[in-house]
Amino acid sequence: MHPAQVATVVAAVAAVSLAGVLVAVAHPSERVLVAGAVRAYVATSDCCAVPRIAVARIQFAAADPEYAAVRLDGFTTGGASLGSVTAVLQRELGVWHVLALGSSDLGCGIPAARVRAELGVACDAASTGG
What we know:
This protein is of the alpha+beta class and 130 residues long. It contains four helices and five strands, in the order H-E-H-E-E-E-E-H-H. Strand 2 (52-60) and strand 3 form a beta hairpin.
């Protein structure tokens, strides 16, 4: 590996360690980066008391690949299913951020209807006041 590539990987690892819920885009696999951002979010935010998650599906929007949706399956430490939720992410300045996590109104942070449709998320304007 070229020294510049090593430096990029080290910087990415440092960004993950320091930022918690952010994952710097330095690895060739966007799927790995998106999955890492979601795992970090679940592990470090107050959103979830889920001992174990599995990334079941990652979907990137073809209309705007800066957006992705991830289906997560939650499990107890004993392996019993806790159900599924979806995380919606956006990449800004090379970093993936979780915009929403849950089961409804996940597309409210996505302005383009085509992107929401591709990701299979919606925003119910009545429930958000807009």
